[in-house]
Amino acid sequence: MPPMPDETAVYALIDAELLKRYTLSPEQVGRFLESEKIPIAQYRDKSASDETVAEALEALRRSYGGTLIVNDRLDLVPLADGLHLGQEDLAAVAPDPAEAVSRVRERIGEKILGLSTHNLSEIETANTLKLDYIGLGAYRPTATKSDAEVRGEELLSIARHSRHPVAIIGGVRWEDRFAPPIRYKVLGSALFERLVAS
Fold first, then answer.
1. pTM for the whole thing?
2. Would the N or C end of the chain have less CB density within 10 A of its end CB?
3. Is residue 150 very low, low, confident or very high in pLDDT (cuts 50, 70, 90)?
4. Each residue of 157-170: pLDDT tens digit?
5. 173 in active site
6. Could you tell me which CATH number the domain at 9-197 has?
7. Residue 147 has pLDDT above 70, yes or no
């Protein structure tokens, strides 16, 4: 895991649908992340082939020197610094979360591993797992995941139960500030809006 910042740092969510919506290339986004000194970014594409996702990761690598996380694609971790999994993706590896994380760790070694959480029960389970951070959301309504349950200020209370650093997600804004253990604010739409306005 990269060094933890003293204040809430931006975690860029580069969703393939946002790239299409704003007609941007991974290289353009990568250059923007570099210029803004954003320390960590995740590339997410739920529908493309592994080959297409690999090309996007390689393009990001050419223009962005920060920590690069790939969403869900275990086979593509060699092209990234880590992996982020959702609850369903983890369960697909093995029904028992500890066994699933153990199997993932066998594949990725000491690379960064993040897991999505949505409630106290999932955080308590995550506390028993060898993770580097958890994602927690949704904080506000979000355009990138319309089916997400919005928990608002309740999330800030739930986050305090995490023994892992927390990346809060869902309608998060540039100006938002959070207290530990929230270390990252995940920006998707807000990031792209600033990019196209710059």
1. 0.93
2. C
3. confident
4. 999 999 999 999 99
5. no
6. 3.20.20.70
7. no
Count the residues in the chain: 198
- 116, 151, 162, 185: the catalytic one is 116
Which of 44, 73, 183, 185 is flagged as catalytic? 44
Query: Percent of the chain scored above 90 by pLDDT?
Result: 87
* Options 61, 105, 140, 145, the catalytic residue: 145
* Residue 103 exposure: Cα atoms within 13 Å on the Cβ side: 15
- Is 44 considered catalytic here? yes
d(Cα 198, Cα 194) in Å, to the nearest integer? 6
Compute the CA torsion angle 125, 128, 134, 138 (nearest 10 deg): 20
Please say whether the beta carbons of 134 and 115 come within 8 A: yes
Summarize pLDDT for 63-94 with one digit per residue, the tens: 999 999 999 999 999 999 999 999 999 999 99
Residue among 146, 170, 142, 145 at smallest CA distance from 156: 170
